[in-house]
UniProtKB/TrEMBL annotation:
Record's keyword terms, sorted: Cell cycle, Cell division, GTP-binding, Membrane, Nucleotide-binding, Receptor
A Gene Ontology biological process term: SRP-dependent cotranslational protein targeting to membrane
Keyword GTP-binding: yes
Gene Ontology cellular component list: cytoplasm; membrane
Boundaries of every SRP54-type proteins GTP-binding domain copy: 275-288
Lineage, top ranks: Eukaryota, Viridiplantae, Streptophyta, Embryophyta, Tracheophyta
Homology family: Belongs to the GTP-binding SRP family.
Membrane topology, as annotated: Peripheral membrane protein
Cell membrane recorded as keyword: no
Domain of life: Eukaryota
One Gene Ontology MF term: signal recognition particle binding
Descriptive protein name: Cell division protein FtsY homolog, chloroplastic isoform X1
Amino acid sequence: DKIFTGFSKTRDNLAVIDELLLYWNLADTDKVLDELEEALLVSDFGPRITIKIVESLREDILAGKLKSGNEIKDALKKSVLEFLTKSANKTELQLGYRKPSVIMIVGVNGGGKTTSLGKLAYRLKKEGAKILMAAGDTFRAAASDQLEIWAERTGCEIVVAEGDKAKASSVLSQAVKRGKEQGFDVVLCDTSGRLHTNYSLMEELIACKKAVGKVVSGAPNEILLVLDGTTGLNMLPQAREFNEVVGITGLVLTKLDGSARGGCVVSVVDELGIPVKFVGVGEGVEDLQPFDAEAFVDAIFS
Ligand code: GDP
């Protein structure tokens, strides 16, 4: 699996612990936990989670609840899994019964929004859904060209802005209207992600959300925030802002085939309490996978 190779660095960092645990005895506890702390920090777990994990292991070791290296390793994996699933367990797309379902894809430029939208279209179409794309990034002309390529590649229809001054919200509202009239199952809405005019971007996203909600009540069903996995913990403030303004329902972490450090997945879920719904593991149509927390934990601690 591609996600497994993508985290090779994280795995190497954490493998140090394995060796220590193999010969672990009670007297080594401080040394092992110091190394573990270091490894977790280097892998972008962030100080909050790292300290919680390490201190809870220390407590259980000293209380005699963990008696071998294997037990410590299992407890470690279990606690990481808990961080991933405790507040964010709905990892499946939640699409409404009203048609069309509307999914808005948001995030800063370059994170992989358009690519993820294309891959998601491919995936949903393969499951039998009739998909309409909406080129809501009216700010960059190249963005709708790029989405048109994805529409062609996946055999989906697309609504693009007419004229230069089209508002994103009116493109999306048009698309959802068409989706409703023509029996589409899902409308996938691309949005703008320019950073330098952040304030108006947020206004625009609010307007987009309202506009689609006027056409189909309950829409958008999902607002997925696309985050570039290679930016590590830097993605957190961004994610927080998007969430405060539009209310994110799920995360798509991209570029996990590259140099992403696994811990940032755990940090972002813990910090926001929002589930990762998909992970991007490449640039091809098939390179979007549903997020499987258990497989993820097994992969980074393998
Ligand atoms: P947008 O500006 O947010 O719409 O970002 P794009 O979809 O244009 O993606 C930016 C770049 O990242 C493109 O070159 C994509 O091919 C690449 N990309 C997106 N997702 C992934 C991924 O999961 N893995 C890899 N390796 N590259 C990706």
